[in-house]
Amino acid sequence: MEFFKIRFGNDLDEITTRFEKTIEDMLGSLGPSFMLSERAWRPPMDMYETSNIIVILAEIGGVQRADLEVEISSKAVRIRGQRQAPACSPDHTYRLAEIQYGRFERILFLPSPIDPEQVTATSKNGFLEIRLTKRPVNQSFKVPIANE
Fold first, then answer.
1. Structural domain boundaries of the chain?
2. Residue 14: its H or E element
3. What pTM did the predictor assign?
4. pLDDT per residue over 41-81, tens digit each?
5. Helices in the chain by DSSP H: which ranges?
6. Separation between Cα atoms, residue 12 and residue 117, nearest integer Å
7. Rounded CA separation 54/117 (Å)
8. Which of 105, 19, 95 is nearest to 60 (CA)?
9. For residues 91 and 75, what is the distance between their CA atoms, to the nearest angstrom?
């Protein structure tokens, strides 16, 4: 059984969340050591398809292969991982901090059924490419009938 976290909010929760985000954005601009919590980031991704394949391209520069995980179901692809922040010495003074570090997770819903046996994933030049072979739409399967 799968459980989903459902959050019901009201105006007070929304105001508090916006206020916390504003404070965190201001502190985060001073440097990563000023962050109140570890924040997830969303690497940019493209998804396109041809008549035979679906291709997902994710920009994940700086993410080590050991910190990357790809899961595939019949309806979606989950890509998650973590980009480690470089070690900072106490004498660093940040003037600009735009690169996002930490955990990320993206779930992309597939436009058509795929064959899970024919999936490849490669990483090159900071991009993760996942190639999923489409399952033929007109393909039929025989279902065995069991005796009672």
1. 10-37, 40-85+99-136
2. helix 11-30
3. 0.66
4. 899 999 999 999 999 999 999 999 999 999 998 788 999 99
5. 11-30
6. 48
7. 14
8. 105
9. 49
Residue 104 tokens, joined: 């990320």
Q: Which residue has the tokens 């046996």?
A: 117
CA atoms within 13 A on the CB side of 107: 4
Quickly tell me which residue has 């440097």 as its tokens: 31
How many Å apart are CA 124 and CA 60, to the nearest integer?
10
**Which numeric CATH code is attached to 40-85+99-136?**
2.60.40.790
Nearest to 54 by CA among 110, 136, 138: 110
- If you ran DSSP here, which 8-state letter would residue 86 be given? P
- Contact, 141 vs 78, CB < 8 A? no
Q: State how far the Cα of 104 lies from the Cα of 21, in Å rounded to an integer.
A: 18
Q: Which amino acid is at 87?
A: A
Query: What is the number of residues in the chain?
Result: 148
Tokens of 88: 């900072």
What are the tens digits of pLDDT across the range 103-134?
999 999 999 998 888 899 999 999 999 999 99
Enter the tokens of residue 105.
Answer: 């997770």
| Amino acid, single-letter form, for residue 135 | R
Cα 113 to Cα 119: distance, rounded to the nearest angstrom: 12
